[in-house]
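It is worth pausing here to work through a concrete case rather than discussing structure prediction in the abstract. The textbook approach is simple: state the sequence, then state the predicted structure, then interpret. We follow exactly that order.
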Amino acid sequence: MANDVLHYFELGMNTHQEAVVYMHKDCTVCRAEGFSASARVLVSGNGHSAIATLNIVENSLLPPGSIGLSTSARAKLAAKPGDTLTVSHAPVVASLRFVRKKIHGHALAENELEAIMTDISAHRYRDVEIAAFLSICADNRLDLDEMIGLTRAMVVCGTKLLWPGSERIFDKHCIGGVPGNRTTPLVVAIASAAGLIIPKTSSRAITSPAGTADTMETLFNVDFDVATMQKIMQATGACLVWGGAASLSPADDLMVRVERELDLDGTGQLVASVLSKKIAAGSHHVLIDIPVGPTAKVRSATEADYLAGVFSQVATACQIQVRCLITDGSQPIGAGIGPVQEAHDLLAVLKCEAQAPHDLREKSLMLAANLIDMARGCGLEKAVTEARHLLNSGAAWTQFQRIATAQGGMKALPEAAFTSHHHAPHGGRLASIDNRKLSRLAKLAGAPVDKCAGLRLHTKAGDHVDAGQALFTLYSSSRGEHDYALTYYRDNMDVFTILQNT
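Step two, the predicted structure:
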């Protein structure tokens, strides 16, 4: 190893979670160590170290004797401009041989999966190596034992929360694939108003226009460490936080980022991701919502039954209880799609406003009732009655406001700078709405990164529409994204199938 040291120079490069270092092609350390672009290097300084990917700078962007860091690498090293850093070859990542083993068609043992998760959690894998692991595990390539092993490995590599004095912790998760469908905040408010303990940790969107954390972030803070999350729970008995900040399953958080780029969501990874985070959050009883529809993530009842069976078997092996509900995913739930628009819907339901989406309200009541029944064994009929009373009486809205206060207070919802209204080209029955194309339209408008972006539906599948009747309103914060989304819509107007009267 060369004795030369380098001084940190601030470049302001944001590569999200991937640690990257920048060195000049003529840097003495680069030449002495024989580094080339994309090499994996170990950077040390300030009592910290990080493995990062090397990018070579060929112009005068970096002063002589300096090294640049991406924002994530800088955070890991707690580096400040001018700090002295040393660079050497990164150690060999032994667990990559297990990835190659899986590529060649062999099943992985639990200890091998744990080694992979440990190395991913420690940022020892490049994105391309994470992508290789995710790809080879997709499309039902994990058997049941591997799914169980992967779930346990994710838990071992993260933080596990304990809730003293309570052995009955509840949670709810939807596997996604249906735009809107923002039932989770409503279920948490209703069920926790009934006295259930629900430490709800949610993810950001992977392939959808909004995840629960994206939507809740428009209303109040969701980014808390474990200690603060525990204080929120002590105050309210529930929370609505982003799971990534609590490091409940750090390997999964890193893989989700790559999954988003690949637009990939395999069954084994899905089950392990969901259950590992529920176990890590200390949950003992989990309700799983599996929407089914021709353009949903799960297309058939057969596929839904298989997924429900896998969830149940993996959960049993991991010593938690799940109840899987197969629900209607044939069209969007609610009217809003995208973080701000979905927030408008859930507030309307909580406040029992006349314009609140009926389907979102009724589905949320049904899901909350199932959680109450899991807790008390009172039967669904009584549980639905209780859930409806909690919503109609304002108790759920009061509980939601308590959670909001504990998480820093409610924020005003922002408005999009650009809106446009789009109408039915002819009259007839709206036979179907394509979930996938509608989600794509909202994402092209800027969601979920742009919290204001998305759309609002003005009719539902099965309704009669007249020529010129409003179908949806599109929202964006930039003219470019708005126009981009509209170009997509003009090329894919079959997102709405209207059967003309004959």
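Step three, interpretation. The mean pLDDT is 92. The chain is about 40% helix and 20% strand.
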